[in-house]
Amino acid sequence: MSAEPELIELRELAPTGRASPGRTRLERANALRIAPGTARNPARQLVPGRGHRFQPAGPATHTWCDLCGDFIWGVVRKGLQCAHCKFTCHYRCRALVCLDCCGPRDLGWEPALERDTNVDEPVEWETPDLSQAETEQKIKEYNGQINSNLFMSLNKDGSYTGFIKVQLKLVRPVSVPSSKKPPSLQDARRGPGRGTTARRRTSFYLPKDAVKHLHVLSRTRAREVIEALLRKFLVVDDPRKFALFERAERHGQVYLRKLSDDEQPLRLRLLAGPSEKALSFVLKENDSGEVNWDAFSMPELHNFLRILQREEEEHLRQILQKYSYCRQKIQEALHACPLG
């Protein structure tokens, strides 16, 4: 049996006609297969994870719990995060964490200027619209520069297909279902807490510098790339926990920019050319501190409002209790003082 790793091909790229010569070789490229490795047996996960040093998460922490998969949100009481491995969870989930701390992970991060597409700043990365002739010329130039068989191909409808390479640099663990049944794409899109597979989870840390190639269409969006990667590796974490970044090296400086959900990675690849220094793609945790509330459903937003109200009421109760206690002590001191 061949041990050659499989390349991810999104569903809508299923061949509609006769494959061209060499296409079978083209759609199988060298890539690392990501496997759970030495995760503990779920039936024996009764011992709390060792080595964690949990502390309250920072005020900018808006993310998903690494244990249960639900969204962590609040103004005052957000959640807990391990100071070593960055495992993040709800307060209520702390006692259920069975994954051992892996310690600080050296992922080879270089100093980078990071830009976020969620902020209201002048857009300097808008890409030009290419005509059919310009697209065809760009594809010819691109194919003439590459040293591999990962060519781009122009389709009759004006779209084109090609390959992108994504480097996975995830600090926190990912979760896969404990059962053998893989989650469907619909389960991932429905969000956390709605599928039976998300209730029984096994967590593990991805290997350092894992890389995967994807065969995509020019109209494939960044969000679809993330979903395809997660589905390939049976990851049941919410896709919104992750973000696709573009990395570029210019004038000795590394720049990182988070792609919006609707940006088209293959189009960016074509415009930048095949150089990895000019453009590469990195999958990271979506820990920018910005929350895209439009991505949540109406029931989820109503639930967040209820959480906010309960937290506000509890916070006000604690503040009033502190002031009442202080006032009481002052009054007791006044009564204890002799008159005159």
UniProtKB/TrEMBL annotation:
Q: Where in the cell is it found?
A: Cytoplasm, Cytoskeleton, Microtubule organizing center, Centrosome; Cytoplasm, Cytoskeleton, Spindle pole; Nucleus
* Highest taxon above the source species: Eukaryota
Does the record's keyword annotation contain Transferase?
no
Q: Which InterPro entries match?
A: C1-like_sf (IPR046349), PKC_DAG/PE (IPR002219), RA_dom (IPR000159), RASSF1-6 (IPR033614), RASSF1_RA (IPR033600), SARAH_dom (IPR011524), Ubiquitin-like_domsf (IPR029071)
Domain Ras-associating: start-end pairs: 194-288
Which keywords are on file for this protein? Answer: Acetylation, Cell cycle, Cytoplasm, Cytoskeleton, Metal-binding, Microtubule, Nucleus, Phosphoprotein, Zinc, Zinc-finger
How is this protein named in the record? Ras association domain-containing protein 1
Q: Which organism is it from?
A: Propithecus coquereli
Q: Name the gene behind this protein.
A: RASSF1
